Amino acid sequence: MADQNQPTFDMRRIADRPVSGTPARRDYLSPELDGQCLPVAVLEGGAPGPTVCVSAGLHGSEYCALETAQRLLRLDPASLRGRLIVLPLVNLAAFAGRATYVNPQDGLNPNRVFPGSAGGSSSHRIADWLTRDVYRHADCILDLHSGDVSEYVSPFSIFLHDDPRSRELARAAGLDFAIGLAPGGMSIDGAAAFGVPGVILEAGGALVREDNVVDILYGAVLRALAAAGVIDDVGGEPSPARVIRTPITSLAPHHGIWYPDNEVGAFLETDAVVGRIRDYFGHETAVIRTPKRGFLLYQLVGMPVNEGEVLCWIGET
To answer: Which residue ranges make up each domain of the chain?
Structure first.
């Protein structure tokens, strides 16, 4: 449990202060946001350099992302240049409540409301604080995610398709795929509102904390930090990411029980079977096929499915 006597985090004051030259880590708490004070760790290196912010836990049940942030907290500040700001859990209510997709305090997906609003509901206020008081003072941001409770994703990064700096950061992270999306209320949209490039890094899911997936995400973060100039090159060239523009989504035509046929990352030809829906008596009621050939980037893996829910993403390179 965090010590409530820890100092209050003030990103602008920290970012404006020259790097002291003495490597150190300092722990802070955010100002109170709807009854919760968020943990923030500042790792200051021994030499001047950029300020990079890494956040995790917008969705509180994405455990591989959360564990990746915990690993970052153990970095030796002496190995850094500039500052690394780690926000290891930015939706405490969702984490404590084991919530799926949303902030339980307002029922909203917090990664669809950026840049947020100081006068809005809980998710809007968290997004506003992150955007105005944290992200805007960074040189770049990395926002960590996994699939949620009933989802599983192939390792991919998300960048804003019209921002070349965001795209280059995504490619530098070296995950299997780099997906270019239009703005849509994501964390990286909030950063972009102040001219700060950012990427979302994502892998794994389904309430499982898998060490091999955490290794993948952690490696991607280190490569992005090296590209930003915070750490030395970590060595080894990852395979170039396959760049994908706006994946195709398949929606559930009705409710039922979902049975996926493939593993994420698989390449599927046009009209390949992605999965099947059965009714509660076990009768097959729908066969879901790919509208185009491409890689299976994301899929629903939980059994319950409701009409209109996204079953999968298919991405063409």
So the answer is: 11-243, 247-315
Q: The tokens of 136 are what?
A: 């805007």
What tokens appear for 36 in the block?
A: 């919760």
As separate numbers, helices (DSSP H) first and strands (DSSP E) second, the chain gives: 7, 17
- The architecture of the domain spanning 11-243 is 3-Layer(aba) Sandwich (3.40)
What's the predicted TM-score (pTM) here?
0.95
Give the DSSP H or E segment for 187: helix 187-192
For domain 247-315, is the CATH number 2.40.50.100?
Answer: yes
Q: What is the pLDDT of residues 263-305, one digit of tens each?
A: 999 999 999 999 999 999 999 999 999 999 999 999 999 999 9
User: Which residues in the chain belong to E strands, given as ranges?
Assistant: 24-29, 39-44, 47-56, 81-87, 140-145, 151-160, 177-181, 198-205, 242-245, 248-251, 256-260, 267-268, 273-278, 284-289, 294-300, 304-305, 310-315
Residue 191 has pLDDT above 90, yes or no: yes
State residue 295 phi and psi, 5-degree precision.
-90, 140
Beta bridge partners of 42: 26, 85
